Amino acid sequence: FAESQSESDSESPLDSESARVHGRPFDVTLMLRRQPLSAAALTRVLLVYPAMTLKVAAAIYWQAFRLWAADVPFVPHPRLLNLADPARMSDH
Question: In this predicted structure, what is the pLDDT of residue 3?
Answer without folding.
Answer: 45
